[in-house]
Design a protein that fits this description.
By secondary structure, this protein is α+β, with helices and mostly antiparallel strands. The strands form four sheets. Strands 1, 2, 9, 10, 11, 12, 20 and 21 form an eight-stranded mixed β-sheet that branches. Helix 1 packs parallel to helix 5, helix 1 runs parallel beside helix 10 and helix 2 packs across helix 10. The chain binds flavin-adenine dinucleotide (FAD).
Length: 403
């Protein structure tokens, strides 16, 4: 058995782990920082499978950590892409109330946007018709968020990986975290034991399980929600000029089926937020284990029975979206002319690392960071953690990691 040491040990090489590692090294250049990644390379999960939208921060309650880091993160990520010559499309986002009940949310979002310093304006029915003729709206009106952009998340990730390696940080890929002895600060990794000064858990879809190895985060458990995308057939005759989003149900941390125009011009419709049967259950029954199935199933059943936070409506709506006709119905809320045959299959699929708070029985909506013994646990790094990555990493280093 080999023995290694690291002043700072980061578990998980997604955008959060990479930016936290880079920030630690920037603050403590002489410290050794080691990243552990279970896959053969970084970015196999959420950071390489998302919509690539740099969100403006309009949705989040002003006191939340998301509100604090999202808007600043979008500006910083856009500047990073421009500085590195990475593709960036400044498309702007149109937010439409898909049903009459969503109309009052326009005022709430406009106010949140104002408080969160987002460049947002209300569009009259005429303005909406002119800017986005295909978009549907329950009262004809919409909000327009000018600053929303799209990037290629895989290009961003590759660039950040190269920055991290260039700063002298090693990324060890293709291992498994085994036993952790938080008292002696030793973590087992395949055949190695690693003595660490401080560990940072940024394990995304496994962040709760890794936290539990350190005796932390016992209150939280992960409920995976799958994001399935379809492609809009270019021959459908439906032209999309901006990103079109429905006004979301702000009680749940999902944004609703929307359009995203990728860097290559492909218009994706999605993602869903359908319950997945495993943390990495991207297709069919892959990534499904009986014990995880029972854990997820029992938590979902409890949530459904409690009916908390609009969960019953969410489960009913989203569960059906596994099937194309129901998915198309959801998409028609923002694109009324869309028919199922306008949707082409897509291999793009991601799973959200959504935490459930077992004490309150609620889905956690904000980012969550918890202190453990000589360790920091980043839980619930759901959307918009990609957008927010740089300021989020600084926040984690300011408040949660001894650097
Ligand atoms: C469908 C979808 C669409 C999204 N769209 C957007 C968007 O448009 N804009 C936006 O800002 N955000 C978006 N997000 C959210 C965003 O992708 C995530 O918030 C972000 O990528 C989280 O990064 P992460 O580093 O925490 O997780 P990840 O990228 O999942 O990285 C965690 C890493 O930890 C590794 N790991 C796990 N367990 C272990 C272990 N035991 N040992 C070692 N390594 C381990 C994993 O292999 C993985 O590489 C979206 C997410 C999804 C699912």
């Amino acid at each position: 058995m080999g023995a290694r040491t690291a002043d700072y040990l980061v578990i998980g090489a997604g955008i959060v782990g990479l930016t936290v590692a880079a920030e630690i090294k920037r603050r403590r250049p002489a410290a050794s920082v080691l990243i552990l990644e279970k896959e053969d390379k970084p970015g196999r999960h959420s950071s390489g499978r998302n919509s690539g939208v740099l969100h403006s921060g309009i949705y989040y309650p002003p006191a939340s950590l998301k509100a604090k880091v999202c808007g600043a993160g979008a500006k910083e990520m856009a500047a990073y892409c421009e500085a590195r010559g990475l593709p960036l499309k400044k498309l702007g986002k149109i937010l439409v109330p898909a049903a009459a009940v969503d109309v009052p949310q326009l005022d709430l979002l406009l106010e949140r946007g104002r408080v969160n310093d987002v460049d947002v304006v209300r569009l009259s029915a005429d303005e909406l018709k002119r800017m986005e003729p295909e978009a549907g709206s329950a009262n004809g009106e919409a909000l327009f968020v000018r600053s929303t952009s799209v990037v290629s998340s895989s290009d961003v990730l590759a660039s950040v990986v190269s920055d991290v390696r260039g700063a002298g940080i090693e990324i060890l890929c293709g291992g498994q975290v085994g036993r952790v002895d938080p008292e002696r600060r030793i973590l087992h990794w395949g055949g190695d034991s690693i003595a660490y000064g401080h560990a940072i858990n940024t394990a995304g879809l496994h962040a709760d399980a890794v936290a539990h190895l350190f005796g932390s985060g016992e209150r939280y458990t992960l409920l995976p929600f799958k994001g399935i995308y379809w492609k809009l057939d270019p021959s459908s005759g439906i032209a999309v000029n901006h990103l079109i989003y429905p006004v979301p149900d702000l009680r749940v941390p999902f944004l609703g089926v929307h359009t995203t125009t990728a860097i290559d011009g492909t218009v994706y419709v999605g993602p869903t937020a359908v319950p997945a049967f495993g943390r990495e259950n991207y297709r069919g029954l892959s990534g499904v284990t009986p014990s995880e199935l029972v854990r997820i199933g029992s938590h979902l059943a409890r949530q459904y029975l409690s009916g908390r936070d609009g969960f019953r409506r969410l489960a009913w709506q989203e569960g059906r979206r596994y099937f194309k006709p129901w998915f198309a119905e959801a998409a028609r809320a923002i694109l009324p002319r869309l028919r199922p045959e306008h949707l082409l299959p897509s291999t793009k699929v991601g799973i959200r690392a959504q935490m459930l708070d077992k004490e309150t029985g609620s889905l956690v909506t904000d980012f969550l960071v918890e202190k453990g013994r000589s360790s920091t646990h980043v839980l619930n790094a759901i959307s918009p953690a990609f957008t927010s990555a740089f300021p989020l990493a600084r926040h984690i280093c300011d408040d949660w990691v001894p650097v």
